[in-house]
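Re: beginner question about structure tokens

> Can someone show what the tokenized structure looks like for a real chain? I only ever see the sequence side.

Sure, here's an example I had lying around. Input first:
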Amino acid sequence: MEEKEELLGSFEEYERKSSLLGLKDLIFALLFLAIALGLFFPKIYVANEIYYTSRKINKLLDHYEILKEENRLLKQKLEEEKFKNQVLDMIF
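And the corresponding structure tokens:
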């Protein structure tokens, strides 16, 4: 009977020790986390930089298109004024 209790006690002690995480497990988890961050952080950083740079490029392209259209309208108004001026010069 005493042997059974001793075996049961040692088994319970083993279960209690094995269920707790040790320092070795903590170091392994932190090392794994550091490696994962080291691998994925550059990719995330580059992807974000590409995204924000493309947003800036699109904004500049929009401004460029607006300025081109404005330039076209100004040229058209200039031609109209030149035509008016030529017609008025011919009349007087």
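Each token stands for a local structural state, so reading them left to right follows the chain. Residues 22-91 form one domain.
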